[in-house]
Amino acid sequence: MPRHSSFSIQAPSAAVMVRPHHFNVNTDTAADNHFQASDESHKDLAPLAYSEITRATEVLQSNGIKIHLFEDLGMQTPDSVFPNNWFSTHAGGQIAVYPMKVISRRRERRSDVIELLKQQYRVQEIIDYSGLEYDGLFLEGTGAMVLDHIDRVAYAVRSDRTDPIALERFCTQFNFEPMAFDAHDSRGRAVYHTNVLMCVATEFVMMGLDMLTDTGRRQEIIARLERSGRQVIALSNEQIARFAGNAIELQGKDGRVLALSTTALATLEPHQVAVIEESARPVPLDIPTIERAGGSVRCTLAGIHLTPRD
């Protein structure tokens, strides 16, 4: 019998999503986000993105995931559909608010999201790191870090969006061990966010190992993951480019699921899917327009690790 019925602190049963009304590919972030598509068609992407998030929300809810859906009516927040970058939640009642590199992304922070979390979940403390922006120090949430909530490790690709000082400060405050590393794509370009190449689930990890340029560090990370009892699924550079690493494990009504895009699932090999299905059921979401902005399913979901109020 699959083991995905058991509760896991790694897999939240609720998440925040943001439905955009004026979605567009953000030219401000194109310099270091090489997963982003250059939109030369000038096609109005907003209605497509709106429909994709609407449908993705319905699919997740039908699988027993509680989705808190917020609307973004603003014209100056093209990446608002990716809320996991500006805040994260943690068992014990903590919320972290993060410093963002690009000014247009700083506008995504919303007090109404924080207020809803305080109303519906037990929140003890809010730690706001956004003031580090004035010192040029950035740490873009669970895009910059892939958090292992079980083994208490924060995996982080070194980049302009993951400052080592901010990373150390977060890890000290939230009791994670930082494990930073360098990663580059097949053209030698630095990877901007960790969650495009790595997904940590309860019993497996999907990771673009070929992107880790330091072979010694790569072996350290593999050993650490295997010591935690997880099976490591090595993803190719082509699979990473098609967002196979940008997935998230969630707790559904019938057990754990792996939310990922249809693009990502289509690029996985049968033996890789078989490993996933031993502990989680893949739930594909069709979001090709959203993916043009350089992020996929993991980026659209800010998981809630807080305790619900009675």
From TrEMBL:
Identify the keywords attached in UniProt to this record, alphabetized: Transferase
Instruction: Extract one GO molecular function annotation from the record.
Output: transferase activity
Fetch the Pfam families from UniProt: DDAH_eukar
Record carries keyword Ribonucleoprotein: no
Gene3D superfamilies the UniProt entry points to: L-arginine/glycine Amidinotransferase, Chain A (3.75.10.10)
Top-rank taxon, per record? Bacteria
SUPFAM superfamilies listed in its UniProt record? Pentein
* NCBIfam families according to UniProt: citrull_CtlX
**Mind telling me what this protein is named?**
Amidinotransferase
Origin species, per record, is: Phyllobacterium endophyticum
